[in-house]
Each structure stands twice: as C-alpha cells, then as structure tokens.
C-alpha cells in the first residue's frame, strides 16, 4: 500500500524522534520472505536516492506490486537450472550490471536478453546431448533482427557453484541498480526466495568446457511461419552438428550487444 502526506511518528533512534507528514510504502504481507524482499528492494532504492518525488514513489510501488504477483512455477527444477545458466552467463561475460539492462523484464519473456536489433537466448541441459526445447518464435528469423543462442551442458556437482551463490553475487552487484527488480522476479518464479535454499549446484569447469554459441539461422527448425490458427509451437532441436560461432565472432557479438 502507498500513502502520501500522512501523519507519522518517525523514530530514527532513541534520541531522534520526529513527527510530521511523510509519504509511505507499506508491506501488508505477513510472510517473512515477502518482508525481507520488500526491505531489501527499498534499501536498494534508497541507496541510489530513488525516492525523491511522488512520481518515483508511484513507479516503485507499481514495481513492487508486480514483483509480489510473480508466483513460483510448478516446474521449479527446470526454472532453477535455467536461472543458474542465465546468472552464470552474465557473471562470466562482463558481470551482472553489464547485462541487467537488456535482461528480460519478466522471467516468462520470449528471449533472455534483447536490444533493438539483437536477441540472445540461453539454453541449458543436464543431458550429454546438446538438445534444447525452443518455441518457434525464438528461432523464427525476423527482418533486421539477429538472434544468438548460447548452449550450456550442465553437470551436477555437490561441490559446484550453487544457484544461491550466484543469486547472492547478483544481488550484491545490482544493489542500487534499477534493474535489481528483474532479478527478484526471476528468484521468486524459480522458488528461490527463501534464504535457506541452495538450489542446484553445477561444476563450473565442465560448463566452461561445454559451452557453444549458435546463430538461430543455423539451428534445425521449421523454415516457415506458423500456419493460420496455430500458435505457441514448441519443439526440440539437436544442435550437435550445427555450425558454432568462433571465439572472435563471440567477442564481437558481446561487444556489439552491450554497446547497443
């Protein structure tokens, strides 16, 4: 709930108590996890000096309402693997702040990262074969748009890097950043909001050795649009024999993507 110009008694400490009219954003949930997230988000906003006018307070309030409307997906195991891969990608390729702006606003977005002319989708699997599920929309080539796929093979490892560790690193780096809310949405959808969860662990060395980049146009796919009356087409594609991007092509893509 948001309130404007209400009478409050503000206690900053035992010797600093003020009475006056203040604006307020209130958390009405009794859930301890919701309260922790609420305080963390507002601490982040306050650290950047973000609550300085009524319009900004309204924007933050709407963002919080949207955040707390995100529900944990039923397939939280797959969602956690996917989030691990996305956070690992950002950490490995310049850091979370570098990619946060282009990261999806909603965890259910068609692409993981987007600019005006480029799309980037992160895929991961714990199977030894490089087979991923795509929506036809992800592989459909649009005019003046380039889509790149990053494919990770994951190996579970009790001593590997946990999803919780990646989340903590991302939260720390994005604290005070307006795109922190994107991370919190992804955390809630993956069922990782509770602080005592480690989530899956994967071997980083194995992941680094088994990563491959592809142009969407090189991936086996349907070559035509969905026919009239058909939407939401999904299918699995085997990327084993698809041509991979070279190291130089990858470097150029990352540079161009982040500049755009």
Description:
The protein has 260 residues and is an alpha+beta fold. It folds into two domains: 2-68, no CATH class; 76-164 and 197-259, Trna Endonuclease, Chain: A, domain 1 (3-Layer(aba) Sandwich). The chain has nine helices and ten strands. The protein has helices at residues 32-47, 54-68, 76-92, 96-100, 136-139, 163-174, 180-189, 204-209, 247-259; strands spanning 2-13, 16-25, 113-114, 118-125, 131-135, 146-153, 156-162, 201-202, 211-215, 234-238. The chain has a four-stranded mixed sheet. Strands 1-2 form a two-stranded antiparallel ribbon. A two-stranded antiparallel ribbon has the order 5-10. The radius of gyration is 21 Å and the shape is elongated.
Task: Write the topology of this structure.
Blueprint: E1 2-13, E2 16-25, H1 32-47, H2 54-68, H3 76-92, H4 96-100, E3 113-114, E4 118-125, E5 131-135, H5 136-139, E6 146-153, E7 156-162, H6 163-174, H7 180-189, E8 201-202, H8 204-209, E9 211-215, E10 234-238, H9 247-259
Parallel strand pairs: 4-6
Antiparallel strand pairs: 1-2, 3-4, 5-10, 6-9, 7-8
């Amino acid at each position: 709930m948001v309130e404007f110009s209400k009478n409050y008694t503000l206690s900053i400490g035992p010797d600093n108590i003020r009475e006056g009219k203040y604006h307020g954003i209130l958390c009405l949930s009794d859930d301890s996890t919701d309260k922790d997230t609420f305080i963390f988000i507002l601490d982040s906003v306050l650290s950047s000096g973000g609550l300085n006018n009524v319009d900004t307070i309204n924007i933050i309030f709407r963002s919080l309402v949207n955040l707390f409307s995100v529900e944990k997906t039923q397939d939280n195991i797959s969602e956690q693997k996917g989030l691990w891969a996305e956070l690992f990608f950002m950490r490995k390729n310049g850091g979370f702040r570098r990619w946060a702006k282009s990261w999806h606003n909603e965890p259910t977005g068609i692409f993981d990262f987007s600019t005006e002319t480029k799309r980037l989708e992160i895929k991961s699997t714990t199977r030894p074969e490089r087979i991923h599920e795509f929506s036809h929309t992800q592989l459909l080539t649009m005019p003046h748009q380039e889509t790149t796929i990053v494919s990770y093979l994951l190996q579970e490892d009790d001593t590997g890097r946990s999803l919780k560790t990646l989340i903590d690193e991302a939260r720390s780096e994005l604290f005070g950043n307006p795109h922190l809310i994107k991370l919190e949405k992804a955390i809630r959808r993956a069922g990782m909001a509770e602080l005592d969860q480690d989530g899956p662990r994967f071997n980083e060395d194995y992941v680094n050795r088994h990563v491959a980049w592809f142009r969407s146009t090189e991936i086996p796919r349907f070559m035509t649009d969905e026919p009239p009356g058909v939407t939401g087409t999904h299918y699995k594609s085997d990327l084993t024999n698809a041509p991979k991007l070279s190291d130089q092509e990858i470097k150029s893509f990352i540079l161009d993507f982040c500049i755009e």
